[in-house]
Every structure is written in C-alpha cells, then in structure tokens.
Specification:
7 helices; elongated; mainly alpha
C-alpha cells in the first residue's frame, strides 16, 4: 500500500501543470547565471554566485517550490475528491502523512537541485566550484525542512 501511495502522490504532484511552472521558476537562476557569464561583470564570480544562489535559490525558488508541492500533496486529494477513499483504507493515517511529506520533499529536491547546481556551474565557469556542494546540501536540507 505504501508503494501505491508513493506512486499516486508523485503522479499527482509531478503530472500537473504546477510541476512545469515550478521547473520554469527553478530555471530562473540558470538564466541569470548565463546572463552574468555573457556580460563583463565587475563582480567576482564566487561572490556573485553565492549572492544569487542565496537570494534566488534558497530565498525564493526553494521555499516557493516546497510550499506549492507541500500543499499540493494533500490538496490534490481534497481537490480530486479522493481523500475520503484514501482515509477509509486500512492504513494508519500517520503513514499516509509521512509518505506524502517524503514525496513532496523528494519532488522539491528533484525540481530545484539540478537547476541550482547548473546555475552555480555556469556562473563560476568551472572555477572555484567549492560553494556548489555546500549549496546542494543546503537545498536538500531546506527541501526536507520546509
């Protein structure tokens, strides 16, 4: 039953228009990094990348994606009218909630992590990529926390 619940929740979250919108939002830092790379910016690449990922990645993209996916996990059941059927199954309610939270965190990581790492690599241009793993860990921890 847990596997079916995981598949159902993942399909509800990632199979809708909201996943595409969140992916487009997550690609915004990639666009900013590409513009920075193509311009002759006076700012240091490491400083720019840290500021961009802090403000746009961890301050905007990650919380907004986690909010949309987090509310969508149970909201989709209510919206589709299947919450009653789900809650009448012989499965503990805590297990349903834990599975839905885990899928929401995984979907948030799946949508936000690759574009933010790509934005870091583009902005740094392969140099001084020491901050990239730190931001990757921050995205994972943030997705689980939110």
């Amino acid at each position: 039953m847990t596997r079916a619940l995981i598949e159902l929740t993942a399909r509800q979250l990632l199979g809708r228009r909201r996943a595409l919108i969140m992916l487009l939002l997550a690609l915004l830092p990639v666009l900013v990094a590409a513009i920075y790379r193509l311009s002759d910016g006076d700012q240091d690449a490491a400083e720019f990348t840290a500021d961009m990922l802090d403000v746009m990645g961890l301050g905007l993209v990650l919380p907004l994606t986690a909010l949309i996916f987090g509310t969508g996990t149970l909201g989709a059941e209510i919206e589709d009218g299947t919450a009653v059927y789900l809650l009448t199954k012989p499965v503990e309610r805590w297990r349903i909630v834990v599975v839905k939270i885990a899928v929401a965190a995984a979907a948030t990581i799946l949508v936000t992590l690759p574009p933010l790492v790509l934005a870091s690599v583009i902005a740094l241009g392969g140099d001084e990529a020491a901050s990239t793993p730190a931001f990757a860990v921050a995205v994972i921890v943030g997705a689980i926390t939110y």
